[in-house]
Amino acid sequence: MNSRPAPLLQVNDLKMHFAGPRPRPLQPRLPVRSVDGVSFQIKHGETLGLVGESGCGKTTTARAIMRLLEPTDGSIIFNGTDITHMGQRQLRPLRHDFQMIAQDPFSSLNPRMRVGRLLREPMQIANIPRAEQLERLQHSLRRVGLNESHITRFPHEFSGGQRQRLAIARALMLNPKLVICDEPVSALDVSVQAQIVNLLQDLQHEFGLTYLFVSHDLSIVRHISTNVAVMYLGKIMEYGTRHDVFSRPRHPYTSALISAVPKVGGKRGQRVVLHGELPSPINPPSGCRFHTRCPYAQPICRTDEPALSPKEAGQQLVACHFPLD
């Protein structure tokens, strides 16, 4: 009998293709393969860090999981329920269980609403009693480092860090199980970034939250994540525990990303410089998508696409014909 608990979120071969340009007038539009077969899972109480260069499909993956976009193919299983192609009416009772923190808190908060109304809105949609709304509102504000005096203010009256605290409070207002953090600290100063990351960790420990943490900052991902998935041009190149991925990266792309992370004190390793431009998702390379920039590419890399699998028992998953030792 299998006693292992089921993952809270399971994504299987997720694809998000958009209509691109026409090669010639009246010809069919070319598909933009923004996400092209992504699979991972997150267990209760864990944090998966999703990293990669800008344009690799991280945010599109997050928006598809939130069902803000309609997936082209694949499946999204949340808490045992397939939500891949659910209608909005079916999704509404489930939405309080998964929430999102956007990258820019100023654009994600309605500038015409005061804080009290902003935080009450999700509870009103969920039909929470009015007396309980005020109690939750006050508790959430205190928990993120604000207080009741901020209820009557507008978002523009706060600093960037305070606005992000408001966005976090709003996401937690319905006691979700999963929170998708889409670059939640990239628009903030470095000192404020540390405060927000520590706040997210404290909230996770207190409420048993599960995070999908999307970021291009590997130093933050290393600090907050349980597992790490490295994404390149719509596909996952490497997937494993934080310790395995950062201490012994197996994919050349992962190695290049880690080598670029600034280090304070200690000896810095050799910098791996990637040459060439990021290919277009309209016409991705054949075989391994990274072979056009990989310093270790062989002829097989240009023709055969490597599967995301462990090369040896107990190692992290890697999509590479010749993984690094």
Count of β-strands: 11
Number of domains: 1
Q: Give me the secondary-structure category.
A: alpha/beta
CATH class: Alpha Beta
Largest sheet at a glance?
A: 7 strands, mixed
Written description of the protein model:
The protein has 325 residues and is of the alpha/beta class. The protein has one domain: P-loop containing nucleotide triphosphate hydrolases (Rossmann fold). The protein has eleven helices and eleven strands. The strands form two sheets. A seven-stranded mixed beta sheet has the order 6-7-8-3-9-10-11, sandwiched between helices. It has a four-stranded antiparallel beta sheet with strand order 2-1-4-5. β9 (227-232) and β10 form a beta hairpin. α4 (115-125) packs across α5, α5 (130-143) packs across α6 and α6 packs parallel to α7 (190-207). The chain is globular. 37% of the residues are buried. The model has no long low-confidence stretch (mean pLDDT 89).
Write a brief structural summary.
This protein has 325 residues and is α/β, with parallel strands linked by helices. The chain has helices at residues 58-65, 88-91, 105-108, 115-125, 130-143, 160-171, 190-207, 218-224, 242-247, 252-259, 299-303, and strands at residues 9-19, 31-42, 47-51, 73-78, 81-82, 98-101, 178-182, 210-214, 227-232, 235-241, 317-318. It has 11 helices and 11 strands.
Tag the structure with descriptive keywords.
325 residues, alpha/beta, Rossmann fold, 4-stranded antiparallel sheet, 11 helices, 30% helix, 20% strand
Task: Break the fold down into its secondary structure elements and pairings.
Layout: E1 9-19, E2 31-42, E3 47-51, H1 58-65, E4 73-78, E5 81-82, H2 88-91, E6 98-101, H3 105-108, H4 115-125, H5 130-143, H6 160-171, E7 178-182, H7 190-207, E8 210-214, H8 218-224, E9 227-232, E10 235-241, H9 242-247, H10 252-259, H11 299-303, E11 317-318
Parallel strand pairs: 3-8, 3-9, 6-7, 7-8
Antiparallel strand pairs: 1-2, 1-4, 4-5, 9-10, 10-11
